[in-house]
Amino acid sequence: MYFRSLRPNPLFLRPKLRRERFAEIVAALSVRPESTAWEISQHISWSRPFDTMSDRLLGLAVRETHAHLLVLADRGSIRSLGGHPERWTPTSRKEVTP
């Protein structure tokens, strides 16, 4: 069974947009190392200002940011410092390709 009403996330359909988002996250971490997904989410671009989003949209934004953090960590561009909440920091490697 398919979900016909769901639209795919354009970031994962368009490699350029995905690379731009990865670059934004790495840049945010370079300025603010040891940040949480919530803190990073506040410093990257969204379709509307972060501070005007509803609670539901804020949750989705933070989860999307966290998913990107996991990919970047898997590639060695950033690393988790652990903790609760989990904090992230850049590594010396700055690769941001998809």
Tell me about this structure.
This protein is mostly helical. The protein has helices at residues 10-13, 15-31, 37-41, 55-75; strands at 78-82, 87-90. It is globular and about 35 Å long. The longest helix is centred in the middle third of the chain and has 21 residues, at 55-75. The protein contains 4 helices and 2 strands. The chain has a two-stranded antiparallel ribbon. Helix 2 (15-31) packs across helix 4 (55-75).
List the helices and strands and how they pair.
Blueprint: H1 10-13, H2 15-31, H3 37-41, H4 55-75, E1 78-82, E2 87-90
Antiparallel strand pairs: 1-2
Q: Classify the secondary structure makeup into a structural class.
A: mainly alpha
Strand arrangement within the widest β-sheet reads 1-2
Q: Could you tell me the strand content as a percent range?
A: 5-15%
Radius of gyration based on Cα positions: 14 Å
What average pLDDT do the residues reach? 85
Instruction: Estimate percent helicity.
Output: 40-55%
Instruction: Identify low-pLDDT runs.
Output: 94-98
Task: Sum up the structure in keywords.
single chain, 4 helices, 98 residues, two-stranded antiparallel ribbon, disordered C terminus, globular, mainly alpha
